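Below is a filled-in request sheet from our internal design queue. Each sheet records the structural input a requester submitted and the sequence that came back. We keep these sheets so that new team members can see what a complete request looks like end to end.

REQUESTER: design group, bay 2
PRIORITY: normal
MODE: inverse folding
CHAIN LENGTH: 144
BACKBONE (tokenized):
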């Protein structure tokens, strides 16, 4: 069986970091994901997808992502059954994030190196200058 989801969208609010009774980090957030097609009246539709991240990924998301940031989430779809306050059976779908990556460039005005991603994500380049230099070709022979 395969249950793999990859979504890309903008956070609708800052991630909410909480801890379980056993101190496990969990972060919840919602991504606004635009559909690839337009409706008959020419308007784009957007899906609002709930995401939950656990442990190091939760801490990473809470530290580096804020409302409006573009994120790429890789994970699995989870369906949960629950009862509301009136005792009615309800069902919720959410993505359980395994990896979260930056989907946009660094924030406006953020200092270089702001994306030091310790775990669970992509670390964007810190420097905009190239560290490559040209090698002089003395005799024209390739070394291999």
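RETURNED SEQUENCE:
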């Amino acid at each position: 069986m395969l249950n793999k989801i990859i979504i890309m969208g903008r956070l609708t609010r800052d991630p909410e970091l909480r801890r379980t009774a056993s101190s496990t980090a969990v972060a919840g957030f919602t991504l606004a994901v635009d559909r690839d097609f337009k409706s008959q009246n020419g308007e784009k539709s957007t899906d609002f997808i709930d995401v939950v991240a656990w442990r190091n990924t939760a801490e990473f998301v809470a530290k580096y992502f804020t409302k409006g940031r573009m994120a790429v989430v890789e994970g699995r779809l989870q369906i949960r059954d629950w009862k509301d306050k009136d005792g009615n059976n309800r069902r919720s779908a959410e993505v359980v994030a395994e990896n979260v990556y930056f989907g946009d460039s660094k924030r406006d005005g953020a200092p270089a190196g702001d994306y030091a991603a310790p775990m669970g994500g992509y670390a964007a380049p810190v420097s905009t200058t190239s560290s490559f230099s040209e090698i002089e070709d003395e005799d024209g022979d390739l070394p291999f």
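SHEET NOTES:
- Strands lie at 5-11, 16-19, 25-38, 44-54, 70-83, 89-102.
- Residues 29 and 84 are 21 Å apart (CA to CA).
FILED BY: M.R.
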